[in-house]
Amino acid sequence: MRGVQLQNTSSLLTSQQNEGSVNDAHAVESKKKICCACPDTKKLRDECIVEHGEDACGKWIEAHKQCLRAEGFNV
């Protein structure tokens, strides 16, 4: 009987670990991707760069970086 109990306990631990992996994967999927974060500042930055060039758009580039940092990205 003790052998059966150990096997069942081992199976239960393995099952719980696998469920934890699934939950961790779901948490990563639900996090915003950097390409989808801060669409307003991204649009302004991109339009400025297209029209005026990157050198003239430092204000918009920095505003977008600040928004991304506020969303938790390390940029």
From TrEMBL:
Residues 1-24 are annotated as: Disordered. PROSITE patterns: CHCH. Cu cation binds at residues 35-36. Residues 1-21 have a biased composition (Polar residues). Signal peptide: none annotated. It is found in: Mitochondrion intermembrane space. It comes from the Eukaryota. GO terms for cellular component: mitochondrial intermembrane space. GO terms for molecular function: copper chaperone activity; copper ion binding. Keywords: Chaperone, Copper, Disulfide bond, Metal-binding, Mitochondrion. The keyword Metal-binding applies. It holds the Pfam family COX17. The keyword Methyltransferase does not apply. Belongs to the COX17 family. PANTHER family: CYTOCHROME C OXIDASE COPPER CHAPERONE. This is Cytochrome c oxidase copper chaperone. It comes from Trifolium subterraneum. The lineage of its organism: Eukaryota, Viridiplantae, Streptophyta, Embryophyta, Tracheophyta.
